[in-house]
Input
Amino acid sequence: MDPTVPAAPRHPSPSAPRRPLVAGNWKMNGTRPLARTLAHAALAAARASLDVDVAVFPPYPLLPYVAEALGSPDGPVALGGQACHADAKGAHTSGVSASMLAEAGCTLVLCGHSEVRTECGQGDEGVRGSAAAALDAGLRPLVCVGETRAERDAGRAREVLERQLDAVVLRLPRGADGIDVAYEPVWAIGTGLTATPAQAGEAHAWLRVRLDAVRGERARILYGGSVAPANIGGFLSVPGVDGVLVGGQSLDPAAFTSLVEAARHAAARRRP
Ligand code: PGA
Output
């Protein structure tokens, strides 16, 4: 490398506004034809909204098809895996390692999605392990946290969110740099119920304080849970909501496109 050329900063300056991220979690949905349609729609939306980061998280077998449809891994739509194992390899039937995802063209991975926590019994320690493995493999983890309805009703939402976040970010080898977080109240996922913008703003503020304390100024905090074109504007107008993690509506190309457009408008309003 030419020593006279300064290396580009790994992250933009902390004072720059964080670029919004619109992330589509396809869950266990999609066929090859639908995957291509969705990938092309995401590409078109991202090209029309260069101030917005766009990502899709297809099921594992569709990753190669989506990678091909998206073109270069440096293109405008990032590819992500829906989970990864904490170990690099071994006797873990059904497991997928972070390096396998990287080899398939992923640059991102979800860690600790509530459906994985619940259906696969993944605890905070497992989420930390998968986020650490992701960082080791050069992937950017999108760490999901969120309280259940019962926890919220018992007044324990803050305690749960802080426990889930601290378990991961305080113990990552490189602090909170290079990760993003999604606040997804479990009771809002796939239910058509959403947090109010005020509830989201409060939760994001709690999480922001913790992230900033471990050098996480560049870490984005997304809102997730029944996000749709009709409600995204309310979330993105809340200070501290840096984007959205979308399930059901990411399977509809027109809806996903309008979510990216809404993020473009929100980014324009936030520009200093
Ligand atoms: P939903 O899912 O948008 O269908 O509620 C969000 C998620 O689980 O990430």
